[in-house]
Amino acid sequence: MKAGVAAPGRAQISERTYRKDRWWAWPLSMGAVLAFFVVYATIRIFMNKYYWAGEEHYLTPIYSPCLSASCVPGSSHFGTPLPEFPIWLPMAIISFVILAGFRATCYYYRKTYYRSFFLSPSACAVPEPRGKYSGERRFPLVLMNSHRYFFYGACIFALINVYDAVLAFHGKDGGIGMGLGTIIILINLVALLGYTASCHACRHIMGGKLKSFSDHPLRYRYWTFVSKLNPRHGQLAMTSLFTVILTDAYIMSVSAGWITDLRIFN
């Protein structure tokens, strides 16, 4: 028996939709952005080079933290507890799994790539092509319920990004310095912290399961702050996507010697 819009009792309409506007523009553009990021990130993690600008102390967020003995000298801020990786294994595998898992299970990204790649549905009043809908109760979509656990990992990486940003204030002659890369890293840090803090899982952790906010004034204050960020979660999700690419591309260019970092002082 057919289900969905083709189910018995539903009006049988041959047209896919009666919408006259360019409803396909949003899923098409968002799908192109996500596809570009996936291709870029895949290429970068398998390059295994051009991730550390030693003279400026810039470490790209894609390779942070670098924990393998294969890491170039100076890039391992937390030691090298992992052995050398074979050439085919990305050194950024740990950060990639955690951060990619955090974004892939994010509510906003799920809505975006469900509509763009799976047409589920493409837009309001535009039915999806499949006749059955099982939600996220079966493998592999049931893994989406692990979002809160990826959020915990993302918080740890956010703290690591803060540490990397502090190290970016390193002068070429020692002491404190600042370059264009430092500013780019700081902008990316603000975008990443905003995206992480505005997460729905973060909002639930701050105020979920509380019967009375008056008994927990600090959690109420944190919940209020996160609630103000939460409506901008989608904007911060896409903004942080571009800032990560920009930061990585800039550090890669400096590390490879393609460009010279513009120094503001020292």
UniProtKB/TrEMBL annotation:
Superkingdom of source: Bacteria
Keyword line: Membrane, Transmembrane, Transmembrane helix
Transmembrane regions: 23-43, 87-109, 149-170, 176-197, 236-259
Protein name: Uncharacterized protein
Organism: Actinophytocola oryzae
